[in-house]
């Protein structure tokens, strides 16, 4: 398998100015959809008080984050006042700002070479990605890292991204500068690996509960509502699971972001099969992602018994789960997940298949279903409170 990564440049929120001759920009992009920008701006400063106006600034700048300094450390600068104007340019705004003054307009004519200044571009910028849950006040968080999984690709190439631990996070640095244009999505290869072993899992979580309908329900109300949890979900989920280890040809900290899966068809071409997001994943941890619903596997769940005894504080409930494998060949294992939502004190009194207790109110049955056949699983649970 081939693992690659692309970085999607989203909102750029922080900006730092420097006074110097170097024109190289650098960006450190964070998972929470902001970036720290370092850019050198030549300023013609005279002794005393100066008024400086700088354009070509990203519209998403956080004004209180701007820092002006001499990168050489040779000049002492003091900011007396700082203003940031992000108003949309209009005829009324220009008249109010330049009342009594002459205004120059740049108008493109035919095939002329006049250029109109556009939003912000970073030429040959040095790019870093800071992965981790960094504390920052913001209204929306969005994953800006991405991955791609594909089968059968060769990969004897120098790693385009280097990684190291930084504070309590991980810092990824692109090996070469790149240009970021305004409103552009930039993709770079992150990691290439062969022979990554991923296991396909089938999961049937058959209870289809309308959370809005039961919002605010107490535990007692849930116990006594005969219809709670009786709606059936027919979909069988497909999951991919792999170990992020050196033995599995990976073994580097994976930042939070989007993961895409591709599979090679008989004609040798890669076909996209799914995508999802993963959280920050340290090395040697297991990654499990939902990749879609199985086309040829069907689940059906129905309740077969419900008896409540309020005088003795007890309840018995039974369910029947039908699993159908419509594939032409091959037996599959389906993991049937059941949530024991009536109360925390419970006991399985009858069952058709062995189960594993995954938490205090969840059990999992692993059921083998041959191709072209249907398998019926059942269980009965006794609650006390």
Q: How would you describe what is shown here?
A:
The chain has 385 residues and is mainly β. It has a domain at 199-240 and 285-384: Immunoglobulin-like (Sandwich). The protein is built from two helices and 21 strands. The protein has helices spanning 91-97, 219-224; strands at 2-7, 14-18, 26-30, 34-40, 67-69, 122-131, 145-150, 161-166, 169-174, 178-180, 198-205, 235-243, 257-264, 270-278, 286-309, 314-325, 332-339, 346-351, 355-359, 362-369, 374-384. A nine-stranded mixed β-sheet has the order 18-21-16-15-12-11-17-20-19, with no helix packed on it. Strands 2, 3, 4, 5, 6, 8, 9 and 10 form an eight-stranded mixed β-sheet that branches. A four-stranded mixed β-sheet has the order 1-7-13-14, with no helix packed on it. Strand 3 (26-30) and strand 4 (34-40) form a beta hairpin. It is elongated, with a radius of gyration of 30 Å. The chain starts with a strand and ends with a strand. Mean pLDDT is 78; it is low at 1-22, 114-118 and 140-158.
Radius of gyration: 30 Å
User: What percentage of residues falls in helices of 4 or more residues?
Assistant: under 10%
Shape: elongated
Look up the CATH topology of the domain at 199-240 and 285-384.
Immunoglobulin-like
Number of strands: 21
How large a portion of the residues is in β-strands, by DSSP E? 35-45%
Low-confidence stretches: 1-22, 114-118, 140-158
Strand order of the largest sheet: 18-21-16-15-12-11-17-20-19
- At CATH level 2, the architecture of the domain at 199-240 and 285-384 is Sandwich
> What is the mean pLDDT?
78
List descriptors.
43% strand; 385 residues; elongated; eight-stranded mixed sheet; nine-stranded mixed sheet; mainly beta; Immunoglobulin-like
